[in-house]
Amino acid sequence: MSPSTTTKDTSTMEEKGEHINGFDPSAAPPFRIADIRAAIPKHCWVKNPWRSMSYVLRDVLVISALLAAAVYLDAWFFWPVYWVAQGTMFWALFVLGHDCGHGSFSDVAILNNVVGHFLHSAILVPYHGWRLSHKTHHQNHGNVDMDESWVPMPEKIYKDLGISTKLLRFTIPFPLFAYPMYLWHRSPGKTGSHFNPYSSLFSPQDRKHVMTSTACWIGMLAFLLYLSFVFGSAITFKLYGVPYLIFVVWLDLVTYLHHHGYERKLPWYRGKEWSYLRGGLTTVDRDYGVFNNIQHDIGTHVIHHLFPQIPHYHLVEATKAAKPVIGKYYREPQKSGPIPIHLIKILVSSLREDHYVSNSGDVVFYQRDPNMFSIRKSE
Ligand SMILES: [Zn+2]
Ligand SMILES: [Zn+2]
């Protein structure tokens, strides 16, 4: 491997995960992606639109029941329960829309797109805009220069960030509310909006799709404004606004933790060292306790990243079948109790440790800035 030598790397060898017990997780694996594919049972690749729709129905029923209970009870003790439960259900809807975006919901493109618009517009996500940038994320996972969302910043970009951006990016709870900002402005060092068909995120043939999704997003916003006008903004905020914020927290927590925070630092690649397989193997599975089922097994991220066409309801089985092939390259998730509180510790320590990567080098690891909030002369 060729870690960077141009900037001072403060990580120890152990932190970098180099050659512990003779295993280097950043080295090219001895197996091919075809070997993993072959180990996954055939039925795991089959998309069943009825089964997919049954999950939509399940989530819509739970959301309606929660809504009815909140309106009926309107009690101080129930509101916090409602907010957490409904925010989690919004997140569950997002995960089903994620399947639509990958085409793993069904083999019928129009069904995927209609259901995807319905699910994502309901939670103020521009379906095609996000679908396209998420595709970029999958196709470039683990690539410092090309990946999308929660990408490590090279030191030169990091050093130019203002204190307020560093605060928002690395201090809890701010990064947990990043998603709406990401939709509008992408990540630091990148430009483009998920709502703008002419954004650099999209190619010219995508413009019509992006326009449709932005129109649906505006329609949903108008609907919420109408509800605020008719029923009052306070009740609309209590019924929709707070669950929306909880959904954003889930989304940021889960998407961050799938690519950050493990006892041995995860490698990131550039240039010739990157490959679809090596990049995909840098992702991390997570155990979310009772939420695994509610959020449609989103924690099975490694196999999802490598094979996004597998429907969510086959990912647990596919992961089990693939593990003997992936061997040590599979990072076993820490077992969770019913509530995944262990993730908070992982998130906090990653945000303290993982600040930037070296400007050069084809295999790099996150480094820590010990003076993150000191005022520099140039600021
Ligand atoms: Zn991912
Ligand atoms: Zn995905």
UniProtKB/TrEMBL annotation:
<feature type="compositionally biased region" description="Basic and acidic residues">
    <location>
        <begin position="11"/>
        <end position="21"/>
    </location>
</feature>
<dbReference type="GO" id="GO:0016717">
    <property type="term" value="F:oxidoreductase activity, acting on paired donors, with oxidation of a pair of donors resulting in the reduction of molecular oxygen to two molecules of water"/>
</dbReference>
<feature type="transmembrane region" description="Helical">
    <location>
        <begin position="241"/>
        <end position="258"/>
    </location>
</feature>
<keyword id="KW-0444">Lipid biosynthesis</keyword>
<dbReference type="InterPro" id="IPR021863">
    <property type="entry name" value="FAS_N"/>
</dbReference>
<keyword id="KW-0276">Fatty acid metabolism</keyword>
<dbReference type="Pfam" id="PF11960">
    <property type="entry name" value="DUF3474"/>
</dbReference>
<keyword id="KW-0275">Fatty acid biosynthesis</keyword>
<keyword id="KW-0560">Oxidoreductase</keyword>
<feature type="compositionally biased region" description="Polar residues">
    <location>
        <begin position="1"/>
        <end position="10"/>
    </location>
</feature>
<feature type="transmembrane region" description="Helical">
    <location>
        <begin position="215"/>
        <end position="235"/>
    </location>
</feature>
<dbReference type="InterPro" id="IPR012171">
    <property type="entry name" value="Fatty_acid_desaturase"/>
</dbReference>
<dbReference type="Pfam" id="PF00487">
    <property type="entry name" value="FA_desaturase"/>
</dbReference>
<dbReference type="GO" id="GO:0016020">
    <property type="term" value="C:membrane"/>
</dbReference>
<feature type="region of interest" description="Disordered">
    <location>
        <begin position="1"/>
        <end position="26"/>
    </location>
</feature>
<comment type="similarity">
    <text>Belongs to the fatty acid desaturase type 1 family.</text>
</comment>
<keyword id="KW-1133">Transmembrane helix</keyword>
<comment type="pathway">
    <text>Lipid metabolism; polyunsaturated fatty acid biosynthesis.</text>
</comment>
<protein>
    <submittedName>
        <fullName>Fatty acid desaturase 3</fullName>
    </submittedName>
</protein>
<dbReference type="GO" id="GO:0006633">
    <property type="term" value="P:fatty acid biosynthetic process"/>
</dbReference>
<keyword id="KW-0472">Membrane</keyword>
<feature type="transmembrane region" description="Helical">
    <location>
        <begin position="55"/>
        <end position="73"/>
    </location>
</feature>
<dbReference type="InterPro" id="IPR005804">
    <property type="entry name" value="FA_desaturase_dom"/>
</dbReference>
<keyword id="KW-0443">Lipid metabolism</keyword>
<keyword id="KW-0812">Transmembrane</keyword>
<feature type="domain" description="Fatty acid desaturase">
    <location>
        <begin position="78"/>
        <end position="331"/>
    </location>
</feature>
<feature type="domain" description="Fatty acid desaturase N-terminal">
    <location>
        <begin position="8"/>
        <end position="67"/>
    </location>
</feature>
